[in-house]
Amino acid sequence: MNDGRSPEPVHSVRGYLFVYFALLAGTGLTVWASFIPFGSREINIGIALLIAGVKAFLVAGYFMHLISERKMICNVMGFTAFFFLSLMFLTLYAMHDFPPTTVTH
Amino acid sequence: MDIPYTVQPRPDTGVYNAKMGIWLFLASEVMLFGGLFSAYVLLRVGADAWPHGWLNIPLGTANTFVLITSSITTVLAWVSLKNNQFSRFKLFHAITLVCALCFLGIKSFEYRDKFMHYEITLANGKFADGHLIGKSRDFDLAKKTGSVTLHGYEVDQEVDLMDLHRPEARHIQREEITIPAVEIKKMGNYGPWHNTYTAIYFTLTGLHALHVIGGALVIGFLWGPGSRMWKTDPERFTNRVEVSGLFWHFVDLIWIFLFPVLYLL
Amino acid sequence: MSTYLNKFPPHRDDDRAHEHSHHDPGFWRTYIFSTDHKVIGIQYGLGALSFMLFGFFLMLLMRWQMAHPGEPVPVVGWLLEKTLGQVAARGALSADLYNSFGAMHGTIMVFLGVVPLAFAAFGNYVVPLMIGAPDMAFPRVNMASYQCYVLGGIVMLVSFFIPGGAAQAGWTSYSPLATSIPTDGQIFWIIGMALIITSSLLSAVNFIATIIQLRAPGMTWMRLPFFVWAQFVTGFLLLLAFPPLEAAAIMQLMDKVAHTSFFLPTGLAIGGQLANASGGGSPLLWQHLFWFLGHPEVYVLILPAMGIVCEIIANNTRKPIWGYKSLVYSALVVGFLSFLVWAHHMYLTGMGQKIATFFQATTMIISIPSVIILTCLLISLWGGSIRFNTPMLFALGFLPMFGMGGLTGLPLGLAPSDIHLHDTYYVIAHFHYVVAPGTIFALFAGIYYWFPKMTGRKMNEFWGRVHFWCSFVFMNIVFLPMFAQGMKGMLRRMADGGANYSAARVPGAIDTLPNSIMALHTWILWAAMALGLAQIPFIINLFWSIRHGEKVKSDNPWQSTTLEWQTPTPPPHGNFATPPRIYRGPYEYSVPGHATDFFPQNEPPDFVATPEVSTAH
Amino acid sequence: MKEWFGEKILGLPQLASSNGRGVDDLIIYVHWLMLALFIGWTIYFLYAIRRFRSSRHPKADYHGVRGHTSNYLEVGVALVEAVLLIFVAVPIWARNVSQLPSPGESTVIQVVAQQFAWNVRYAGPDGVFGRQDMKFVASDNVFGVDPADASGKDDIQLLNEIHVPVNKPVIIYLSSKDVVHSLKIIAMRVCQDAIPGLRVPVWFTPTRIGRYQINCAQLCGNGHSAMSGGFLTVESPADFDKWLKSKSGAATSFE
Ligand code: HEA
Ligand code: HEA
Ligand code: CUA
Ligand SMILES: [Cu+2]
Questions:
Q1: Beta strand pairing call for D198-204 and D210-213
Q2: Of C365, C372, C586, D56, which is the most exposed, with the fewest CB atoms less than 10 Å away?
């Protein structure tokens, strides 16, 4: 996030290619990791989401040049991410905080 | 007065109008898919058993490669314009379009596969599962006449169909089995109605596919008739390519989450 | 300051020449497929007012039914039977029809009436003018947004006439009810909503981009009129809260047409039949996604109204708004928090202690910035020189009315008191006080206030006063008794007005509704009719004044400081003849030492103003 | 004073349970706050618009109010709200949802709502409900009782009538077989949505003998307003036992 200057688009093709191959590698890695039993399903899910997160960061950060984008846009996306997470986790939490002895089926 | 900052960035915000607009639009898209992702998490957490390994991982991986490739060609197309190389732009954008079509092709093949895939509850309490090869001419489930033929296998309990990812499941022998209608209690394919997993799978990927189609239409326009603007207003055209590219990357980004979430986990 | 201005390149001289090169675009492009924000604003306004009138008409029929359950509706009963058929047999409302009308009253009022009027109509017309912009950032997107709105409205209207009638599951469309009712009305509702949501999203993108990008040189954030701030926050609410509802609508549509089970749990047996669905879904998921929109939506209804009231109060007290910064920050905080309170509509769905505490706490916290906003507006009156013209009357009327509505939100916001009040007429009264005498009054105020800008003529002052006083009195007679009814436990959405729970019908039970409470129905019915009649002077006044109203003597008839009054009236295509430059905040009224009692935002500081000079163009 | 205000000014309906006192108290306290604010501001408001009308006050004051009174007021409102929340609302809610009375010393009932009536089920003489599972749910077995379970044989199943002894906690396990309904018994200050797919407990202690109407508070279809046939009868323990005996014969079994 640079605030002072207008964003300098990354014209280096090599940089983009690097990100590209990182993304391909990441895809391979997720598939591979999903077949390895890490002990519990949760760990597998965590690893897959972590890799997906990194890949998403690469796409958003470099292909969409978010990391060199202005603060305003980063703020908007930041709030959006926050509201998305609160929607997901508060709902999830609400579904796990029924009065005791409630039966769900 | 004309509308300012349609091409040049506004000094204090550093972006031109359309770029601001597309980012705002993407924010709303995040919430749209966010709603569906929340639904996914909730349904999954609430389910007794969540299917595993129901989708074709090699195809999914291939499709991921295709989309990532289309993403880089979009960036490179924009870079080409920035560097004043119009014919390279045409080439890269063409690749993007081919990738988009390829993605949709693979996706529709996968859809078809699911619609051909049947689970049959047998009268003896067992379950048959597999791809439909054909039904006899007089097949009528209501009247219990005729028979169906599947390429698949039988299991004792429905939960055995849930995890096709586990090692034993991967080595199950599939064969052609013919089941007379009298032995069938219930029969249904793996369409969205099958269970909450297929429901969210079809909804999420369907909505994603609509985005791919929309993006492809825009990119196709900018590649074809829209590219005439390069002659009259190159800067504005470059901006348009950038904006459509942002949308395209976003579609890619969604897939990056959809793939592990639906195929692998 | 000057460095800020210097960042902007000087405008090219050929701007004006460009202006004249526009040739007459013809009727269709001028009035129907216009991309001019002012025309679109007026289109939205007329459309939304018509829908509001229609929504009110539905409500009159419902109020008749409540006061006289099962009796044929006088005057229009035969027409209902003719057009709607069996559901209106003998010209009386069946329970199905009552439920349709209720659901559509809510939907139409909220999504086709108030949001389009408050956000889209006023936002379109006023915001670009206020920030010194030539138009919206994306004029064609703007047109598309309006067309989606019209299409969505048509879909909603058509749904009344399909077999089975319009949606019947309330504006909240809770699953599984919404999926189980055997009419396609719900599908129409979903498609209509999808169009309306698209329209709102496009508008929201456009407004936010416009406000960020097209502020004239010198129009810094803290010099924006509060109305623009309100629209800005509203834009974000629409942008981020609507999509989850769209996602939910897609899922409900899938449940309905593809027989999925997103919102249908296992073992559902509707009408004695086990549901033909796989099960495994959750009805509460729909409620969460709906209220994730639903709550921010209510602030979408109120923030623009507060913005309008703020402008009018500043103008008619002839003094700066007290606490401008607090207003702005409060609006931002309200916007932010409104995403975190939604489950206060769901306390009684079975909510554990921790999550209930969280949502009660956020609900109480969000009431504080609302209190601050109201306090600022009220304190602004002190020391003013108040002119009581029609817009000001409506704006002043807004304050106590919103106060009542907002305050009655507090007992609803605390879960234990909500046990008694939930789904009673207390809730109906609570939110109608905020949306009807609250928001609608503010919208009336805005119409009277900006009408001269749109037409160059004022609306008739006398009839405006008649409109205000009659509306004020009858609104209160309609809604005040509802608090009493709700407190006694009268439930909402009762096709018979609660008769089945009344002491008259159900002898011997202890907690039935006393006759005095049921008798209030008659009062409300008559007051609602009178309220309807009170709108006639307004409607006539509105259309009559376009041609025959008193001509304004200058472009700035209210002697206002904000930018929309510093252009020709009505503003030409492109709005400003020369690009404006802004030197000061929005509410510089009665500045000590200044010649006039208003100091427009774009008047250079060294300019020695006299009233004639500053208003003539 | 408090009761008088609640009954006469607010018009709260009769209260017939011990847990409803807290609900009513909270309603009353909040309304005191609301009234104080509303009356205070209204007086200020009317005074201000009279005092500062342009005919009387032709020249507006650029600065207006300069003090900090309003800040104190806002902080005050926040404080009162915080107190009400932390010391009244949260404890009541906690008691309501987390501190169920023990089943042994309460009347335990299951209720399944349907369009447009209430199915009621008692455990019968043995005091044990039959085993339940969703897979047994059928149109004539809304509770999903396992037909093979012996403890279900003496369960009592009724439509639209709930009887409970006075002064003994009642726990209702509430569910729905079709759409969302809401069980509301006004005098008990009880309201709980009946959500298909969930079985939620709700409890109260009736303190007054009598007959109460059960309201359905959630829109549930075209019969919503007519879903009013259910009654709660609170009676003396002796009467209750007699009633329960008379119903035991009516035990429904699922074969
Ligand atoms: C514009 C719309 C709007 C606004 C602004 C609000 C504002 C608030 N609302 Fe309301 N609400 C609705 C529209 C609105 N609401 C609707 C439509 C529903 C029903 C939906 C449905 O079920 O169909 C609803 C329902 C609703 C519920 C659910 C009730 C139930 O179903 O059981 C709750 C519960 O917490 C609630 C709380 C609040 C609170 C705490 C505020 C607070 O933000 C209020 C804060 C404001 C104040 C505290 C006022 C301060 C003013 C003064 C102090 C000055 C007084 C001045 C003078 C007298 C001159 N509302
Ligand atoms: C913005 C929202 C809004 C508005 C403004 C209103 C306005 C009114 N509402 Fe409504 N209402 C809702 C939103 C709104 N309502 C919602 C969401 C519900 C819940 C639905 C559900 O249960 O699902 C509801 C439910 C509801 C009920 C409960 C029904 C039930 O539970 O069974 C009642 C009962 O009296 C009612 C009455 C009224 C009345 C008398 C008005 C009056 O105030 C109307 C005032 C309007 C006018 C006076 C017309 C103004 C228009 C003009 C003057 C037009 C001029 C035209 C031209 C120039 C062309 N409403
Ligand atoms: Cu059951 Cu309303
Ligand atoms: Cu709310």
A1: unpaired
A2: D56
Atom 3 in ligand 1: residue holding the nearest Cα = C298
Task: State the smallest CA–CA distance between residue C146 and chain D in angstroms.
Answer: 33
> Could you count the other beta carbons within 10 Å of the beta carbon of residue C551?
12
- Please say if the pLDDT value at position C132 is more than 70: yes
Q: B-side interface with C, Cβ within 8 Å? A: 1-5, 10-13, 15-18, 20-21, 24-25, 27-36, 38-39, 42-43, 46-48, 191-196, 199-200, 202-203, 207
Assess whether A84 and A43 both reside in one domain. Answer: no
Is A103 domain-assigned? Answer: no
**CATH entry, B17-114+195-264, from 3.30.420.40, 1.10.3380.30, 1.20.120.80, 1.10.1200.10:** 1.20.120.80
State mean pLDDT over C58-86.
92
Task: Break chain B into its structural domains and give their ranges.
Answer: 17-114+195-264, 117-189
CATH number for the domain running over D103-247: 2.60.40.420
pLDDT one-digit tens code per residue, A33-86: 888 888 888 888 899 999 999 999 999 988 888 888 778 889 999 999 999 999
Contact C137 B207 (CB under 8 A): no
By C-alpha distance, which of D157, D155, D159, D163 is closest to D118? D159
Q: What percent of chain D has pLDDT over 90?
A: 67
Task: List chains touching B (3+ CB pairs under 8 A).
Answer: A, C
Identity at C4, one-letter amino acid code: Y
What's the whole-model pTM score?
A: 0.94
The yes-or-no answer to whether B17-114+195-264 and B117-189 have a common fold is no
Best CATH choice for the domain B117-189 from the list 2.30.30, 3.30.2420, 1.20.1070, 3.40.50? 2.30.30
Band of residue A5 on the pLDDT scale cut at 50, 70, 90: very low
The pLDDT tens digits for A66-75 are: 888 778 889 9
- Strand D107-114 relative to strand D170-176: parallel, antiparallel, unpaired? parallel
A36 or C119: which carries more pLDDT confidence?
A: C119
| Reported CATH class of domain C2-264+280-613 | mainly alpha
Q: Which of B14, B41, B75 sits opposite A7 (nearest CB)?
A: B14
For C150-196, the pLDDT digits (tens) are 999 999 999 999 988 899 999 999 989 999 888 889 999 999 999 99
- Residue among D61, D174, D211, D234 with most chain C CBs within 10 A, to mutate: D61
Range of the domain at A26: 11-65
CB C542 less than 6 A from any atom of ligand 2: yes
Determine the residue type at A90: L
Same domain, A74 and A59: no
> Do B46 and C282 meet the contact criterion of CB atoms below 8 Å apart?
yes
Contact partners of A by the rule of 3+ C-beta pairs under 8 A? B, C, D
Q: Say yes or no to pLDDT of C608 above 80.
A: no
Residue C613: the pLDDT is: 43
Residues A27 and A58 in one domain: yes
Ligand 4 centroid to residue C287 C-alpha, Å: 12
User: Is the residue at A53 inside a domain?
Assistant: yes
CB distance D118 to ligand 3 below 6 Å: no
Instruction: Kindly state whether residue A6 falls inside one of the protein's structural domains.
Output: no
CB contact under 8 A, B31 and A63: no
Helix or strand or coil: residue C595?
Answer: coil
Min Cα distance D118 → chain A (Å) is 19
* Dihedral of the alpha carbons of C406, C408, C414, C419, in degrees to the nearest 10: -140
Least confident segment among B24-28, B208-212, C18-22, C542-546: C18-22
Question: How many structural domains is chain A composed of?
Answer: 2
Q: Check if C430 has its Cβ closer than 6 Å to any atom of ligand 2.
A: no
Please name the residues in contact with C411: beta carbons below 8 A apart, sequence gap of 6 or more.
C417, C418, C421, C426, D26, D27, D30, D31, D34
The number of beta carbons lying within 10 Å of the beta carbon of residue C511 is: 25
Output the CA C113–ligand 2 centroid distance in Å: 10
* End-to-end C-alpha distance for chain A, whole angstroms: 48
Nearest CA to ligand 2 atom 7: C436
> Does D206 score more than 50 pLDDT?
yes
